[in-house]
Amino acid sequence: MRSTRVVPLCLALGLALTACGGGGDDNAEPTGARSASPSAETDSEAPPTLPEGWHYVAGDDIPAESATPELPVTVVDGTGTEVTVDDASRVIVGGDDVAAILGGLGLADLVHAAPENSASTVALQAPQQFAFSQETGTEGLLSVDGTLFIGNNPARHGDVAAQFRDAGVDAVVLDDQQSTADKIREIAGYLGVDEAGERLAQTVEEQFAEASETAEGIGGADELRVLQVTSSGAGGANAVVGTGTAGADIVEALGATSVGVEAGLRGYSVEFSDEGLLDARPDVILMGTADLEEWGGLEGFARAFPTLLDTPAGQAGNIVVMPSEQIKVSGPASGAGAKALALALAELAA
After folding, report:
1. Which domains does the chain have, with CATH numbers?
2. pTM of this structure
3. Which residues of the chain register pLDDT less than 50?
4. 3-state SS of the chain: helix, strand, coil percent to 5?
């Protein structure tokens, strides 16, 4: 197994988080406390919109299994509904986590349709994309010609799943408030591939444990307040990340404090104010590459969250961008993201 890596935009030696760029005006853009000499080489994964002084962190060792669905199977889903799944040949996924987990189980080719604002590779490669929000309603979603719907939030998708079942299409909904590993187990159960799901879940759990040990061994992460923000709130709104998310799982594993979880927020929550975020005084701000791409870089981020550059994290340049599948998506890549972020937070806390 290869070791976890931390990759700055400007290539640097070692497993360390490094601020990119240098030599800029101190009063221009916020810069990090550390800098590295620019290199002619850059990591192809780093977003081109990464602002000067921000940090790009990525892990590797993303586990995968190769499974074959064994159907029919009868399960009780996250809404407490008993469902018999007969056909998973064309799966409509309610979110990135479902798509990524199916991909990790070797079942990416079953993903037939995914939300149009997806960030995960498997979802983006789905043959069909659909819009679903309070504005669009369920009409477009129900018109997708699938054989199985897997939602990822009982509150958001419970009624949709019921409508699918009324129309003769199997539908289940994942409990979004459980750990990443348990989400893997649950989705594997929907497809009758429990053994492969257990192996994948255990590997991710082991990676989280490694990340916890790393953070504890180096020290400092437990003193940090981490705020994760996203462009993927309901209806495409800007949001603060709370419970039931990959980011919350990772921050908790590292012993740091999640600002969103501390505030009692659930999922991608729009229940925040700019003044409240300023008062929360985060030491580190975290986001996915898809978020930064959606905002278009520093100016777009500042418009989305006007007060965050004035927080301790913003002033110090402690703003971390990670691959969305490693920090936003509860799936096989979460453990790799946890290991990478453990090293990064330890560096920022030093």
Report:
1. 55-61+205-349 (3.40.50.1980), 73-199 (3.40.50.1980)
2. 0.84
3. 1-44
4. 40, 15, 45
